[in-house]
């Protein structure tokens, strides 16, 4: 596993031993970032949920993102993210949050600061849609922010959820990613 391009191009990243963490394959990551850069240069603040090794957030930093927050519940995996950030020299632009994703999203409610939100949860995560909807309703992004979701082909996601609409779907072998754009949803009080 390596950083594909940008400031840290070619840097190898550490991964925990075993299959508890399943980093996105390099070819899938290349396809994802090729699509993402079609929407313009990668800039602003990035949120990497279920961060694992941190490779997706680090790739964003390497390509020009200003900052990245990494959310991971496993303490050992958090230490590997920290090593990867030091190795790529992005540790001053990043924060690691050792907690479950849903707790982080509830704590950050309404910050509206992230331009790109990435979630690559465990493949068979039954909560994937609930977490996507929590991202949209918690207000961690803003109108036009992108939500990237890595998922199994066996996980069928809708084209739209409240506050989210899919703008791209791609399948590569046994891996898929969907890109959603965040939109503000009017509350009943706003509509009346």
TrEMBL record:
The keyword Transferase applies. It comes from Chloroflexus islandicus. This is 16S rRNA (Guanine(966)-N(2))-methyltransferase RsmD. One of its GO terms (molecular function) is methyltransferase activity. PANTHER family: METHYLTRANSFERASE (PTHR43542). The keyword Signal does not apply. GO terms for biological process: rRNA methylation. It comes from the Bacteria. CDD domains: AdoMet_MTases. InterPro entries: DNA_methylase_N6_adenine_CS, RNA_MeTrfase_RsmD, SAM-dependent_MTases_sf.
């Amino acid at each position: 596993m390596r950083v594909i391009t940008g400031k840290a191009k070619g840097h190898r990243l550490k991964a925990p031993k075993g299959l508890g963490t399943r980093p996105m394959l390099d070819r899938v990551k290349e396809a994802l970032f090729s699509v993402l850069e079609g929407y313009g240069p990668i800039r602003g603040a990035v949120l990497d949920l279920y961060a694992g090794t941190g490779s997706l957030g680090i790739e964003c930093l390497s390509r020009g993102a200003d900052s990245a927050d990494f959310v991971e519940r496993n303490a050992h995996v958090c230490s590997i993210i920290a090593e990867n950030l030091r190795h790529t020299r992005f540790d001053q632009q990043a924060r690691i949050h050792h907690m479950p994703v849903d707790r982080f999203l509830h704590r950050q409610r309404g910050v509206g600061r992230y331009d790109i939100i990435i979630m690559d949860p465990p493949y068979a995560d039954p909560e994937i849609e609930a977490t996507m909807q929590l991202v949209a309703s918690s207000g961690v992004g803003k109108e036009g922010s992108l939500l990237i979701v890595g998922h199994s082909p066996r996980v069928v996601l809708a084209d739209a959820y409240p506050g989210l609409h899919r703008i791209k779907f791609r399948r590569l072998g046994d891996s898929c990613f969907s890109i959603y754009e965040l939109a503000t949803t009017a509350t009943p009080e706003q509509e009346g």
